[in-house]
């Protein structure tokens, strides 16, 4: 019918036969009743029940590969370059049904019997209308006890729903019910010929135009076509797949019955691969079944057409001729089918018929695609030219900016060096300009030392000097680890550098500890080029050139340790100075600051200077990150190594969860909505790693639950809702185990955090306050659903949590149990990309627990990528460090 390579590609063949009808009928019968049917003419149907169920896609594949013949009661298919026949003979072989000729005047005799003494009331009583589903229900409930009646019910159900189906909800035909009065005569009736005739008429009435539709509805026992192909090509059953779709004529009972939810069927993809091969065993004409031989003379048709081509092909098959693909030539193409469709339209049509016909016409996607490509090809060429021009312009701009920025940074560096040099020279020159040089000028006997709280006045040359001063004043608090003792700036700023003031008093030039010392600055300190300070030697005496400064990386403690407890310095004129006890100004560093708030890291320190990892980590903690514990460069390095490690599939144990490589990659890439297991991975990371590094007193009264909590409540809600006395409801042990510790004692938590899925398309974080009896929904995409939709999803939680609370598993106690209420804070950060909602929900819950609701508005979309990569790294490092 169709030329090779021009076959229509449709979706499937729809049949009215239920794929699970045979097994549903047989399972309602007892073993002895099944054996009685097995020994009858319907016996082979029991073996068919164990074979792969009907595949609409495979049937669609075969119908598009028909050979065009003159035969009325048989069809030929080509498969793997060989012909395969489907006739009444093959139908009788695979079904075992009697397929002889119809008895003469059987219908007239049947009508006379119905009018004289109907048998219907003896079977079904006063019921005038019965469906197959009703009969199956009666058999399953054993409404009828008589064995003979039960066998008749089963045979009528098989006949109507398997062999002669014309609708999804089949009814029991009165004529068939009258015929089963004598069950032996019923089994001898040629039901196979009737079923085959119904199927063949449904196939033959479709021409090339009808076969190009996406879906085709077939009446009768369409499974017989698949059974014949399986017998002809045994390799088709090498690969089978599970079919859970209800679209291929499955009834509602099949869908609702969990026993038949999954069935084995043929794989259309495997069938296509077998069809492309040339060396495949194909039986063009089936052999007889030795257990149920078929009378060849009884399967003929008196009105069959003669076809010489078919006769020649049968002779070649009987002589074991080898067929190849190239022998099957001819057939129509897609263009010819379109012309046939146009010519089949009548000359004059009404408006309604035109609309109906236009709705049924299928457009070839490949043809439309070629037209579109030819139309837009010139425009694409113009766009490509413009893109190339734009790329060249961007390259030129990039080269210009590179040179410009290099020159700008060079000038900035020179200005910085000049500014620092002038500041040091100005400071040192001012300190010695007033020193007495007259030998007759005697200094006073008393020595008043200037307190360390004397403000450090340095003339600011420009904005650069201001930035440097800000950095130097704050450097000591962030370059020294919190565990090491250090001096506060305001407590002791007295420097060992001593000079003479204008009044002859000893003046102290304060050098801040931030400039003088850093516990981690041995490898990262920046030294001023001493060649630029050559002019200082002319101003400052040599004995004062030994003083420590920030360029020498010395501290007050180092100076004191080197000189001893009592350090004796001489003034410029050589007179001894009294001992300076710097320990008087040094107090316990732990009692210096009264505020408990952690110091903020100056932004100038990170933006303008290269800082070590200890400062960057404190900056990230101050920015309230959750999974990020490394700087960006370290995260990228670890993630690059992680990508190579996850190239091969592996399973990692993450805090009790078995995690695959694909799930870790999904955390980092967020290419789809997180499944429940991926969200549970993040919750386990929060409980086992993140919360252990965050210090907050509120965390001791909060507990994080995974998705099992909300899913268990949702599953239990239908049973809970039916109870009138809901206080007597016994919650499942799985629900109580989530809110109890290992010993079964309720967790003493003020609040519970758990993720919640809205329709399996969007994740939110839920905070349950056990004291207030209130739910807060942390929703990162409030435009996805309104309040009413969220309330509908949260109905199981709002109604069940009050009763779960009163059972002692939580702290809330009320006289009257009322459903809880919820709110959605509007200050929560919002995102538009739904696949990010799983990670965002976990970040919002942790931020809310540690920092409060106000911090939830500071989570930016730009940090999600780094948070996801860091979470993936954290999960993998349960196995090994990267």
From TrEMBL:
Record GO biological process: proteolysis
Superkingdom: Eukaryota
DUF1985 domain sequence ranges: 63-202
MF GO annotations: cysteine-type peptidase activity
InterPro entries, alphabetized: DUF1985 (IPR015410), Peptidase_C48_C (IPR003653)
Residue span of region Disordered: 561-601
Pfam families cross-referenced by the UniProt entry: DUF1985, Peptidase_C48
Protein name, per record: Ubiquitin-like protease family profile domain-containing protein
Species for this entry: Brassica cretica
